[in-house]
Amino acid sequence: MTRRAARRIAGGNTECLTQSINEIILQECHELYVEGTESLMAMGERLGLGIEPPRKKINIMLIGNHSAGKSSFINWYIEETIQRTGVAIETQGFTLVTSGKRRDTLTGTATTHFYPMLKELLVTDKIIDYLATEVTTSKQKKFPLITFIDTPGLVDGEMQYPFDVESSIEWMGKKCDLIFVFFDPIGQALCKRTLNIVERLNEYAGDKIKFYLSKADTAGSETDRQKVLMQIVQELCKRPGLNKTGFDMPTIYVPTLAGDKAKCVNQIEEVCKDIDKSIAHTLQSILNTLDKDTTTIVERIDQEMATDQANGKHNMKAHSWWLLFTTLAVGLLLSIITQAIFSLVSPKLLETLIGKEQSGLVFDAITPVLDVFSLIPEDNKYFIFAALIFTNLFLFLLAKLLSRTKPRLSSKQKKQFNADKKRILETIQPRQTDMYGKYLAQCSE
């Protein structure tokens, strides 16, 4: 083994040690889908199946009025100052914050290449100059499994955004696993623009939305906080789509910004628990999808092979029918031609042309045909001949119709399908079982 190979293996082992079990499982699942010609995506493409690779991270979008604490929460969660914070409208575009191998900032065009899904957004809204990605090396909490989407701070009044902010946030919401709505107790907690967007998001993503009263330490006394909570809940309940039972709005604040004077209960760990639940749900969903996709591919391979076998039997029958009806048609055609020729050629002329002995052999061969045609009454001769010609054409048509074959798999395709099925049964499904075991082992004592 070379020194370079040894260093690469050692580096890989070190990286595995720093990864969580969930990270390893998600990475393995993604590799099974995308790596090489033996990947699940390649198999699906050969079979005409739309196999999509799983995401390696969950998407969490944060929305709220300006200075609601969205950026501060992201900085606290990843334990690194990535997003600018302050009372000004600090975020005028979308910023995606994710974990990577090195610290980097990607602008709009680079962001669309890093997240191809965002190219769909550019078709409907020209916001490329207001897209950015912050890549950081932070591995705190569950951040390696998360992409945070920090949205523009929302305000009412004459504030003009350089793009359709409401439609863009709605579009982003469809791509997210969680949507955190932060209400600021000392700012515009009841910002109509925020409430309007939340109401529309709730129509198709109600189970993804989580409400939080952010900066709860700045709301004053406990009585003041309860008043703020009541005002927000009352405003939300005025909207039919948001009026639901079991309404929950934890009060949170960033501990590192609160200082020692904060006396209210901080439920920021509830946010972390919601994230953990979403990661667990996504991981289970991906493992279930892996099981479903492998089963679908194996079933499609069996179906293709069975169809090929059935097509082979059909083609054999088709060739048999073709041979039968073509033989009958050619025989009848030759009989008609023979009768037509020898009705015009006399025995003496034939004897003159080919000789007496040869003409005798010819007449001996065609005598049965001539005898059959001699039975046709003279009055019906032309009608019978027309019927025979029609019958001859009908036989040729039957030969063509019944000889239609169905497509067969080539030897190369059969070999590839058998190899794909063998890989799934002997390699992928055992790895899938092992991944399930690793995941469930975290739940056991």
Oligomer: single chain
The succession of helices and strands, N to C, reads HHHEHEEHHEEHEHEHHHHHHH
Uncertain parts = 1-18
Biggest sheet: strands, sense, closure? 7 strands, mixed
Strand sequence of the main sheet, in spatial order?
3-4-2-5-1-6-7
Radius of gyration: 39 Å
The dominant shape is elongated
- Record field, number of beta strands: 7
Number of helices: 15
Average pLDDT, rounded to a whole number, is: 79
Q: Portion of residues in helices? A: 55-70%
Counting helices, strands and paired strands, the structural category is alpha/beta
N-to-C span:
40 Å
Q: State which percent range the strand residues make up.
A: 5-15%
Overview of the structural elements:
- The protein has 445 residues and is α/β, with parallel strands linked by helices.
- Helix content is 58%, strand content 9%.
- It contains 15 helices and seven strands.
- It has a seven-stranded mixed beta sheet, sandwiched between helices.
- Helix 8 (192-205) links the parallel strand 6 and strand 7 (209-213).
- Helix 7 packs parallel to helix 8 (192-205) and helix 12 packs antiparallel against helix 13 (356-374).
Considering the chains and any ligands shown, give keywords for the structure.
elongated; 58% helix; 15 helices; 445 residues; alpha/beta; disordered N terminus; 7 strands; seven-stranded mixed sheet
SSE map:
Blueprint: H1 3-18, H2 21-34, H3 40-47, E1 58-64, H4 70-78, E2 94-99, E3 104-106, H5 108-114, H6 119-124, E4 131-136, E5 146-150, H7 165-174, E6 178-183, H8 192-205, E7 209-213, H9 222-237, H10 255-258, H11 268-342, H12 347-354, H13 356-374, H14 381-402, H15 411-441
Parallel strand pairs: 1-5, 1-6, 2-4, 6-7
Antiparallel strand pairs: 2-5, 3-4
Helix pairs in contact: 2-11, 2-15, 3-11, 7-8, 11-13, 11-14, 11-15, 12-13
